[in-house]
């Protein structure tokens, strides 16, 4: 292969009209409506980011973690508008992977797919780790018993295996195998429950808030605010999760943009309110190492067990729904990459009865369970943020490229103030990426290097666009 032909190969784009073409393995069923899809986005977003990550974010920024959530929210909002436009004109499974394939070329799409697999797989593991913390708090408050450290924590954190995390992934696997409609309906019920629980927390915590807890507001300066914003950004993964359902949504050109924007508005409001209430309720120095933080705060404020029990139940339901949606999203990305020939066709096979990619659902569940059982939470969180931010920046860049390359393409939604907002989205993402620690960059570089080896060794020749 000559240099010119190799360049043409890695830059080839998938025609948009082929985005949902049947490959002989069957289509996913379109049975998800606006409410279910919006709850999918909220369900994938409100979870570990607010129930667990406050214990790592507040020590980085102090009370100014509120500003960190605002910065992350602005970045997510700018990106959400870009997602809404691309989702309305490329309503395919695979989210930013599919968008990159239509705008940036095959190699970029494969690397974005690798970022998404990192984003979804690692975030699901991080979320599952947090689930065990609240399960432990529930047992402690109701029965005075803790899960033994040996089976409640990963190696290096006082344990051998995180068994609750494995149990959570297994429960999600059972539900996902039943079908997308059943999974999204169960998720919607869980989302309504967790929003009610968070509202209870905000009301009680604000009633006990003290102005002195907000001073000093930014003890670690601007650098701390930026670092916290970078680390909590993984919790905005729900924006991307909405777009992974592109081939299972009714009237996708209208429903996808609406669901993305609605879910972001709900999530950002909830995050900022809970952050204000939590920081006002206790000194910022008390957050470090505080497992099941929100439940502990309520217990300390009221002296009663029932608020902590309710919050722990809400967190357990919440983190379950996030894990469910994130696992769902990863299976759809693998499905899209398998259908395009960039991964083995095994990943794109759809069960004729349940209409879900059954085999790759098993693969995802086993991989996530192993990560959650054996890897500490802090390592997982930063890797997820890196993958999420790279994917978000790519989508924003894709809007600019597709507007110029295909201005005639039907769009159910257009980003306002083009190209200012897409450019601003890319810059915000780059700012947050710069705030991630050096070890995250190293691990991410190793991951992308492995992805390049797979692409040039297998995917480039097996691609559906190669005619192989």
TrEMBL record:
Membrane in keyword set: yes
Top-level division of the source organism's lineage: Bacteria
Topology in membrane: Multi-pass membrane protein
Transmembrane residue ranges: 37-58, 64-86, 107-131, 159-177, 189-211, 217-237, 258-284, 304-329, 359-377, 383-403, 415-434, 440-458
Keywords (A to Z) from UniProt: Membrane, Transmembrane, Transmembrane helix
Keyword Ion transport recorded: no
One Pfam family linked to the record: AA_permease_2
Main location: membrane
Localization per Swiss-Prot or TrEMBL: Membrane
InterPro entries, A to Z: AA/rel_permease1 (IPR002293)
Protein name stated in the entry: Amino acid permease
Upper lineage: Bacteria, Pseudomonadati, Pseudomonadota, Alphaproteobacteria, Sphingomonadales
